[in-house]
Amino acid sequence: MDTHIIMSRKETKYAEILHKAEAEGLKNREGAEMLHLSIRQLQRLKRAFREEGLKGLVHRSRGKPSNRKMPDEERRQMVALIKTRYPDFGPTFAGEKLREKHQIFHDPKTIRSIMIAEGLWKPKRKKKQVYRAWRERRPCYGEMRQYDGSYEYWFEERGEKCCLLASIDDAAGSITHAKFDAHEGVFPTFRFWQEYLEKHGKPLSVYVDKFSTYSMNHKLAKENPDTLTQFQRAMRELGIEPICAHSSPAKGRVERLFGTLQDRLIKELRLQDISTIPEANVFLEKIFIPDFNRRFSVSPRETANMHHPLTEKERASLPAILSRQSVRIIRNDFTIAYRKSWYQLAEDQPVTVFKKNAVIVEERLDGTTCFRLRGKYLLSAKLPFRPQKATPRRTPWALTKKPTYHPSKDHPWRKFDFAHH
What Rg, from alpha-carbon coordinates, does the chain have? Predict the structure, then answer.
């Protein structure tokens, strides 16, 4: 019966050179140079070739199980755990959880091959990407913050869809602050940055996209550089440069962060059985962010921290800066109308107030409404209803009844006799 021997390219080359050595008397030194082996290695191959033929050139471990092969029982246990508890986890993340919670220590590549063999993981094919020039990381921590929000079912079927607001340092790649909120509007963004500024201080710049909260997208607004969003106005008052990206890949660091969080954070919240925003925010701050930064952050090129601490004046004015601001006109009866409510100005004020003055209305995060005129805050009281005028206004469609005209007895028309004319 014929015996088939499977040989690698290297082993086939060994066979060719050894045939020449036997047939043509090739010297050991020349053969060793051709095969890039030592003379002793070549002599061992020649001896094995003489005794066993081609079979002597094949590696002895071929076709045998590896001495470092995972025991079958351990493999079955690992597959059962992944199927029951981590069915939608990636190999790296699954390996971390097996190590942390079940004391099963294996390389992610080993876990990946097992998951592929069991049909638990499908390798992703890389898409053909459009060429984009690489931008080097900023050298210092705090020089640039990339900030964005991501809407997702973060609690899966356990809760409603909500928004995760997050900022990542461009130099270190670390999450500096993250917070769940209902949406990505002005007030959630201001709440996020108030907490950030009080904790870290002021970064040099904030890199955002062209969402309506951060950028004026109307054509006429773009042509006017003085037209600012509430976010841009607040950042400029704080001395922070707001930068708007023209595409998502431009701020790719925070975009990739959300891709990672949509994989890892959702599963972590599931494992912790967290289904409310307050619980999730505590978990983010106390557990998830420190662990994430320990795993994935890098060291900046420079050791300097570019954050500027808030001064006492800035800290005191922070509620005013991080407020929704608009302009209203004082009416003739010294009232101000704002959001279907009416406010009566007091008689005594810290600044002289005239009718038709334009005041700045500050709608603050704590729910209060303040009126500012020439840097001073006006004293006011909210009215229970809209003020009424002293005299009722006449409706335009109610016409006044005109009196019927009766000429006097001695009127010329009464004296004229039409019958004789």
Answer: 40
Q: Closest by alpha carbon to 287, among 193, 178, 183?
A: 178
Q: Is the distance from CB of 182 to CB of 198 less than 8 angstroms?
A: no
| pLDDT, tens only, 20-38 | 777 667 777 877 777 788 8
Contact 380, 368 (CB under 8 A): no
Q: Tell me the C-alpha distance between 354 and 373, whole Å.
A: 11
Distance CA 340, CA 383 (A): 11
Give 274-333 pLDDT, tens digit per residue: 999 999 999 999 999 999 999 999 999 999 999 999 999 999 999 999 999 999 999 998
CATH superfamily of 145-296: Ribonuclease H-like superfamily/Ribonuclease H (3.30.420.10)
Domain extents in the chain: 9-57, 145-296, 323-412
- The single-letter code of the amino acid at 233 is R
Give me the residues paired with residue 401 across strands: none
Q: What is the pLDDT of residue 400?
A: 55
